[in-house]
Amino acid sequence: MPEPIEVRKVPIHSVADASELQKLLDDGVMAADRVIAIIGKTEGNGGVNDYTRIIADRAFREVLVANGAPQEQVQQVPIVWSGGTDGVISPHATIFATVPAEQAEASDDLRLSVGFAMSDHILPEEIGYVAMVDKVAAAVTVAMERAGITDPQHVHYVQTKTPLLTIHTIRDAKSRGHRVWTEHTHESMDLSNGCTALGIAQALGEATDITDADVMHNRSKYSRVASCSSGVELDQAQVVVVGNAPGVGGRYRIGHSVMSDALDADGIWAAIRDAGLDLPERPHWSDLDGRLVNVFLKCETATDGTVHGRRNAMLDDSDVHWHRQIKSAVGGVTAAVTGDPAVFVSVSAAHQGPDGGGPVAAIVDVGQGEPTGYRWRPQA
Q1: What would the pLDDT profile of 100-122 be if each residue is shown by its tens digit?
Q2: What's the chain's Rg over C-alpha atoms?
Q3: pTM above 0.85, yes or no
């Protein structure tokens, strides 16, 4: 049986800041050697050359090592950074750690469980093809097993980080006599994310008979729980499976839904309800009252260039890439729902939810006593 999970969201005060993680360790909320995953937003450009992800990664790993976690263990902790806090999105990190069973609330009900795995090495010439799909799917299966989840219906969120193509890796593939799917490095971010999402969909039975031709073209094949990011900092797929398992205990539950488009606030509320919160028919962020830990979303500009029947110019804008525009728009919608700008909104959602929309996962605190989520009270 996996151990119970403690999960907290903390702000990041500057690019290299991990002081709020240190506070959690100092206060005994979690132990450094029990941290199993970190998922966060950094304030860079979200592109191929967004090195704020590497800076944040180093800062958080250094805190874990300084507080007694073995270096070798810390190097294996999956830390997934999504770059770009456009608009009102606030830099933050969501930290997952195990706690001893005797220190957690006992429950036979479904409670939060987390498993992680690393895929086999992904070659640059495999990005965008079934070879990558299969490697990701195999890692998802391992992560599910580690989380103690046997029913794919109990998986509500799969966060990944995978390699994209760079000039260096493209040159490497060519030197070995191979071609790559694209030589446009920024395009390869969408490609890597979409291919990874199909691997998740395959592992969970959401899509079958995936072919090379499906990747980035057959948008009817997608995952409702995938959240895929890519970057220059690794050459494997980091896979974090988050779901619910019976009998594991703890305070937290996770649920999911999808946004049908960029303005679908109801899709966010549906994920929060699915996680287990009882809400009014027409809820307001004040109804959350500290029970929401965080929401995790993927977003994408609709391929027809419209929202609610109205044309927008995001896909034609040569000044500001649509990645940044849709992230800012959906970040605003999400913050309006939650009352908290520290929300995980990541762009490039190919094969992650329906075209123009994206998956939403929500973690809530259903435990006894004072809730652990964020509360904001307007100044009088």
Answers
A1: 999 999 999 999 999 999 999 99
A2: 19
A3: yes
**Gap between the Cα atoms of 172 and 131, Å rounded:** 18
**Contact, 156 vs 270, CB < 8 A?**
no
Whether 328 is catalytic: no
Q: Which residues contact 324 (CB under 8 A, 6 or more apart)?
A: 45, 46, 84, 86, 347
d(CA 235, CA 120) in angstroms, rounded, equals 9
End-to-end CA distance of the chain: 48
One of 119, 229, 328, 346 is an active-site residue; which one? 229
Q: Is the dihedral of CA 125, 129, 131, 137 positive or negative?
A: positive
DSSP reduced 3-state for 289:
coil
Tokens of 364: 């809530």
CA distance 19 to 235: 29
For residue 282, what pLDDT is reported? 96
> What sign for the dihedral angle of Cα 209, 211, 213, 217?
positive
Q: Could you give phi then psi for residue 271, rounded to 5 degrees?
A: -65, -40
DSSP state of 4: P
Cβ–Cβ under 8 Å, residues 103 and 138: no
- Active-site choice (9, 161, 221, 298): 161
With beta carbons less than 8 A apart as the criterion, state whether 74 and 61 touch. Answer: yes
Strands 35-42 and 79-83 turn out to be parallel
Note if 161 is an active site residue.
yes
